[in-house]
Amino acid sequence: VVRNALIGGVWGKEERKGKIPFEKDKIFDLQFHNEDSAIQILVNGEEFTTFSHRAQPNNIMGVQIQGDLEISGIQIQ
């Protein structure tokens, strides 16, 4: 699972730490919590990793998800 940030049209250094928490053909819940110093990423309610902010947390404008998967819903809270 690659984490990165696009700032000023330039991609930063990729982060890939952690095992792949997904299983083929299994439904999963993926959550992003935008905290003061980092984005906390949970898979099925368990912490997977954190991604330290590279810019102000209020300036985040999107999330990009790629891969062979089907998204069944998105909630923003």
TrEMBL record:
SMART domains: Gal-bind_lectin, GLECT
InterPro entries in alphabetical order: ConA-like_dom_sf (IPR013320), Galectin-like (IPR044156), Galectin_CRD (IPR001079)
Gene3D superfamilies per record: 2.60.120.200
Domain of life: Eukaryota
GO terms assigned for molecular function: carbohydrate binding; galactoside binding
Swiss-Prot/TrEMBL keywords: Lectin
Ranges of residues in domain Galectin: 1-77
Pfam family, any one: Gal-bind_lectin
PANTHER family, per database record: 32 KDA BETA-GALACTOSIDE-BINDING LECTIN LEC-3, GALECTIN
The protein, known as: Galectin
Species this chain originates from: Onchocerca flexuosa
Lineage summary: Eukaryota, Metazoa, Ecdysozoa, Nematoda, Chromadorea
